[in-house]
Here is the input.
Amino acid sequence: MTNQSKNWHAWLNTMPPGPHELHVAGDVLVGNPGIKAVVTMKEPQGINPAILMLDLHLVQEPGMWPQVLTWVPAKYNRVMPPNSKNIEAVEIYEKGEKIASIDHVSIIS
Here is the structure.
């Protein structure tokens, strides 16, 4: 089962002196507050380098947790290599299924 998610957004911080940093954030609905949302770069990436593909992993922390639906933050941060092309869009996947798309990456300069 794919979890619900909302509020996905992405921005690239290009403020001097650098380096440029890409940030992606959203919220994921999970079955208990002991589940953490971990976002990693998808391997392999697609053929378009302007679209960043990410994987969402849900990790259950040990212990006893109340079984209550909870929104948890999901975040991805990356320092961009010098002279890299800007990311224009982001796709988020869970278990191989696309669960969200961000069609515009905001630039903060």
User: Anything to note?
Assistant: The CA atoms of residues 55 and 93 lie 5 Å apart.
